[in-house]
């Protein structure tokens, strides 16, 4: 039950994120249109800005990658734990059945 609730929450969150992304893209498109008109005036200034932006983007990407890796590791750990528990349970069940057979 708890798992189901979590899954539902996650999917809704994902949907929201997607919507947000789409909105952002739309906004960017609009901005782009406006920018085209202003572009010619600003080339010199832009070069400097571009470099800064690139560095920022790299930093952001690195951060994202790190987060993703951490998430993946956490998931793997969880799965491992679950597997171990399952194995233990199975072993216990088998033992019990054998004891009954002996009697």
UniProtKB/TrEMBL annotation:
Residues 12-103 are annotated as: Disordered. It comes from the Eukaryota. Residues 13-96 have a biased composition (Basic residues). This is Uncharacterized protein. It comes from Octopus bimaculoides (California two-spotted octopus).
């Amino acid at each position: 039950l708890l798992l189901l609730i979590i899954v539902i929450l996650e999917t809704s969150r994902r949907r929201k994120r997607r919507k947000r992304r789409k909105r952002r893209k739309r906004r960017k498109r609009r901005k782009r249109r406006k920018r085209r008109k202003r572009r010619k005036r600003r080339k010199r200034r832009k070069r400097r800005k571009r470099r800064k932006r690139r560095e920022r983007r790299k930093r952001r990407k690195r951060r994202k990658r790190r987060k993703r890796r951490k998430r993946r590791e956490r998931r793997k750990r969880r799965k491992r734990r679950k597997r171990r528990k399952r194995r233990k349970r199975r072993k216990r069940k088998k033992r019990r059945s054998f004891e009954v057979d002996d009697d």
